[in-house]
């Protein structure tokens, strides 16, 4: 039995987004294998039906995190934890970094609406945090082979690929391996879902579901135009955006653009429905199985190339055929396994044709897609995808280039950029005052106080 500390930066509660859902299910799977597990959130921890010891430790609370770190044999972390806690950056415990989200690439898109200096700062902060994880971790887990090749380049540039780490591990799987996002072994059960619960959706409507948040790296606008174009061809077509209020991310401008376009085209509240809350984690299955197909559309850029769209797993879980934009790893899966339709980016006509096909009634093509989805989803259950982590926790190891304090791992500078504490807060306040003004600083303070209340 191993004692494992899991640290996430996302809220762990009734409404959870990807990182918290992943941390939660990792905790449950490791418990199932007989390990002792503690789950710590640096933002909020108030999930009611917890079967896992759950705590909140604020960023910079070294005494608070040290209690858990000293208890643990293995520390598994996501996000900015090393910059928030010196205790974790220098731990002598076995250290596992969860790098399933290339956050610096995500920030290239997420920060577009910010002042240029703040955008640069956010991307640099994400890059430095990721480099610190890659430099200091004993073991790293990513979501796909695409990502793994990408990270191997990172690791080589940081000096982590060397004779010391290569000797006896020619494919470097003991340094970085795969643990994609997963899904439950039990398919979702029908319940009180979309129909009759969200205004504008009736029992006979043909529902296309957007199963997650609306962010700037996605392309909801071409999708809305395509839905407007097929409303005569597909009677009762309904595009449902399942959640526009992410529990841990401020609303992006693309949400307002999507609303405005739906109003302009005369489809808001009719063919296009926005659910302006975030569906509780334990209820999302009933919403998904109430749909007829899933959809995910995005632009062509570097974030797409290395992304792992967790909403696609929800479609697999619910047995839904899907329409997806080409360019990411899941598009390859949908195409290779015949799970639905892959369309070019920003192609309204191709998207309209694909929607017509996946929402067809009594279609042999749709029946084949559903059969294939049911087969493929077994490859992505949590027990399957977490097998490498389970094996590591059973017999953990330090990386061959491990040094006490971890500052000597890899090559070059290894100073951890602090992302918590008074000094960090003062630097950020000065930055935003200079580049965004006093009103923006006051708004940020109010949001911080709301989150901590």
Automatic annotation (TrEMBL):
<dbReference type="Pfam" id="PF13692">
    <property type="entry name" value="Glyco_trans_1_4"/>
</dbReference>
<keyword id="KW-0808">Transferase</keyword>
<dbReference type="GO" id="GO:0016757">
    <property type="term" value="F:glycosyltransferase activity"/>
</dbReference>
<protein>
    <submittedName>
        <fullName>Glycosyltransferase involved in cell wall biosynthesis</fullName>
    </submittedName>
</protein>
């Amino acid at each position: 039995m191993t004692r494992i500390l899991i640290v996430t930066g996302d809220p762990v509660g009734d409404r959870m987004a990807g990182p918290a859902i992943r941390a939660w299910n990792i905790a449950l799977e490791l418990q199932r294998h007989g390990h002792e597990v503690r789950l710590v959130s640096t933002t909020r921890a108030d999930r009611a039906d917890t079967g896992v010891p759950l705590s909140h430790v604020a960023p910079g609370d070294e005494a608070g995190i040290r209690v858990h770190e000293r208890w643990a044999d293995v520390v598994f972390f996501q996000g900015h934890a090393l910059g928030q806690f010196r205790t974790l950056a220098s731990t002598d415990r076995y250290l596992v970094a969860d790098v399933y989200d290339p956050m610096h690439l995500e920030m290239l898109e997420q920060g577009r609406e910010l002042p240029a200096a703040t955008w640069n700062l956010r991307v640099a902060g994400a890059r430095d945090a990721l480099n610190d994880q890659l430099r200091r971790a004993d073991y790293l887990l990513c979501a796909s082979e695409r990502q793994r090749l990408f990270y191997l380049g990172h690791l080589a540039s940081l000096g982590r690929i060397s004779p010391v780490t290569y000797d006896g591990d020619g494919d470097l799987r003991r340094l970085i391996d795969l643990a994609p996002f997963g899904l439950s072994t039990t398919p979702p059960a029908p319940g009180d879902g979309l129909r009759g619960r969200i205004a504008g959706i009736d029992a006979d409507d043909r529902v296309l579901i957007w199963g997650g948040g609306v962010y700037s790296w996605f392309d909801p606008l071409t999708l809305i135009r395509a839905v407007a174009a097929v409303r005569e061809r597909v009677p009762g077509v309904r595009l449902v955006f399942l959640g526009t209020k992410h529990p841990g991310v401020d609303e992006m401008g693309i949400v307002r653009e999507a609303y405005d376009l739906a109003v302009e085209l005369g489809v808001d509240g009719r063919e296009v429905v926005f659910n302006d809350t975030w569906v509780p984690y334990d209820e999302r299955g009933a919403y998904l199985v109430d749909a007829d197909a899933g959809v995910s559309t995005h632009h062509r850029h570097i974030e797409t190339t290395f992304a792992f769209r967790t909403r696609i797993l929800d479609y697999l879980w619910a047995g839904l055929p899907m329409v997806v934009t080409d360019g990411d790893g899941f598009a390859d899966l949908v195409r290779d396994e015949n799970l639905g339709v892959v369309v070019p980016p920003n192609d309204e006509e191709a998207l309209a044709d694909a929607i017509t096909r996946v929402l067809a009634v009594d279609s042999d093509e749709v029946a084949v897609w559903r059969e294939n989805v049911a087969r493929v989803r077994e490859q992505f259950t949590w027990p399957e995808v977490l097998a490498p982590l389970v094996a590591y926790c059973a017999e953990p190891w330090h990386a061959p280039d491990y040094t006490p304090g971890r500052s000597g791992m890899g090559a070059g500078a290894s100073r951890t950029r602090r992302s918590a504490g008074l000094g960090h807060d003062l630097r950020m306040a000065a930055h935003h005052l200079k580049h965004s003004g006093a009103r923006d600083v006051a708004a940020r303070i109010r949001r911080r106080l709301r989150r901590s209340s």
